[in-house]
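Changelog note: in this version the structure field was regenerated for every chain. One regenerated record is shown below for reference.
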Amino acid sequence: MSDDVLSQFVKFSNQTSGQDKICRVLQYSSQLVWWYLERRGFSTDYIEQLKQLQSSLSLARKYFSLGKSVEHMRGAAVAIHINDPILRYSITLSRISSALQFLCDNVYLFSRLGLIKLDQGNLVSISSKLWLYADLLNIIRVCYEIRHEIIEQIDRQESNLKHSQHSFYSTCRCVMARRPDLMMDLVKNVSDVWLPVHASGLTKLSPGAVGLFGTVSSVIGAATIWQKSGKL
């Protein structure tokens, strides 16, 4: 491992967000692994250890969420001044939803520690719905940004959406090449949105599907923070 990569890993792992992403990747990948091993008839003892690891990582991430509600509310206060109304409302409301979600997670943690007595199931339900709202708003925001990039690309090519399919697909490929961050953000949010949909009981996914969607969104999220840590 080169010194540059090692230095970047130190920066990444020293951030609370980086530590949270590492735990998140391990949490959902362990769920995917135990689901696969369970289907293959592996030892129940080993499967139970993986389930316990998943549960412990999930609880550990509650500690990382302490104070995040303040961070997201500050982000909402900044986003409210964005000129574009779609971006202003989608980002602001997403930040507020995330702030309330993390606040619920903090209260849930205090309840688990026995500091307060509340209905933990109700807290998880409210947190899941707020998580879902935030993800849906994020999808709206990234789709709007992709649309804006496509329109700009068409203007550059002095074309329009009424031209042949080849022209439109060529435009989309140019946008994907120029803004891979938007494409990855879309994949991350579309993968992530299934987790609160499942957690809030709107649909029932297998543990394998939850593990797969969670792993995909977590890896992309970790990669994003990794790239940012390289610029610090």
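Spot check on this record: The mean pLDDT is 88. Residues 45 and 99 are 38 Å apart (CA to CA).
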